[in-house]
Amino acid sequence: MSMITVPLGERSYPIHIGSGLLDCLGAHTLEALGEISVAVVTDDNVAPLYLQRAVASLESAGLHVCTLTLPHGEQTKCLDQLAKLYSFLCESRITRRDAVVALGGGVIGDLTGLAAATFLRGVHFIQVPTTLLAQVDSSVGGKVAVDLPQGKNLVGAFYQPDFVLVDPNTLTTLTDEYWRDGLGEVVKYGCIGDSSLFALLEECAPGGRAALMARIDEILQHCIQAKADVVAQDERDTGLRMTLNFGHTIAHAVETCQHYSGIRHGEAVALGMHLMTRLTEQKGLTAPGTADRLDALLRQLDMPMELPDFDEETLISAMFMDKKFSGKVLRVIVLNKIGQCFIHPTDATFFHGMTNI
Ligand code: NAD
Ligand code: GLY
């Protein structure tokens, strides 16, 4: 078992990491928040796997528990399901001293977090992430949101949880596609700030998922510590937190051009990191050999390396339509070398030739 703190003054919170910790959810909740009622929100894939254990743990700590199971998938991160969640919290008589638990991946975490931030102007919030992506990224840092028909994450808040409970055992039931989704983000942390994580991934990658799972506690600790460090310095995403977007500018453009129905997010991030690093190495911004090293790891992790057949101008336009972008200058994340990055202001000409890499 280990614990990482996200240091945010009065709103600091712990992230507990350890195999089997799901069975300690009740004890941790009681210790952090006392004898309260707890509303557990999950999806219909996660419920049959882990809901009963979560409820049993909470009840054995003497806490009153109610549960809501929503459909799985990104479509659930919407205003209709948020309204359904508010009704459930009203019917369950959740008060400001009570807590909402998100048991699931990033979809459940983001939706439930937004409900927790806004219901009664804020109730307690506990994250129990069960996907690799949610464990290393979305459950830490307080970004909560739902999508609108006009785009992803357009209604949201910054709302930090009371604590996060990460049980790596839950990853054993993930499909390979969602495992790979999370791995894209794991590689990203190694690239932007943690060369020892990158080396650890290089060591394990030839052994596939089993070898990575054998070292998963260590891998999670590296990633979560990296995220906690960034969030502590830039909670509101005005500077440093942007470095977490390495590979994401190209990834979002690819996802937009495919209308979110082709390549998966983690794979798009891997492709974005690959293309970006080739491009910046050619421009002399990145140390020679970096792109080869990154590509070798991505290949071993079965990440796609070929850009789908897009027109370059369409792809570049999609990058410049990103919601975080205003004006003509786009700030992208560039590696100096593996384990070190910087923010680089660019314009559209920077990406010319990227489809020929
Ligand atoms: P997800 O929540 O849809 O989970 C992926 C799939 O895995 C779902 O079908 C789910 O039912 C299933 N699942 C979850 N845990 C499982 C388990 N242990 N075993 C078997 N199946 C399991 O997707 P995700 O990839 O976890 O998260 C994606 C979402 O996260 C997106 O909406 C994205 O915008 C958001 N996100 C948020 C942040 C943030 O900082 N808040 C960061 C990155 C991504
Ligand atoms: N996933 C990016 C962030 O939390 O800022």
- C-alpha geometry: globular
- Our measurement of the CA-to-CA distance between the termini, rounded to an integer number of angstroms, reads 44 Å
- Taking Cα atoms only, what radius of gyration do you get, to the nearest Å? 20 Å
Helix percent reads 40-55%
| N-to-C SSE string, H for helix and E for strand | EEHEHEHEHEHEEEHHHHHHHHEE
Strand order of the largest sheet: 1-2-9-6-5-3-4
Determine the strand fraction and express it as a percent band: 15-25%
Note the main sheet: 7 strands, mixed
Strand count: 11
> Which small compounds were modeled alongside the protein?
nicotinamide-adenine-dinucleotide, glycine
Structural class given helices, strands, pairing? alpha/beta
Q: Which residues form runs of ≥5 with pLDDT under 50?
A: none
Q: What integer is the average pLDDT? A: 95
Q: Please tally the helical runs, counting DSSP H or I stretches of 4 or more residues.
A: 13
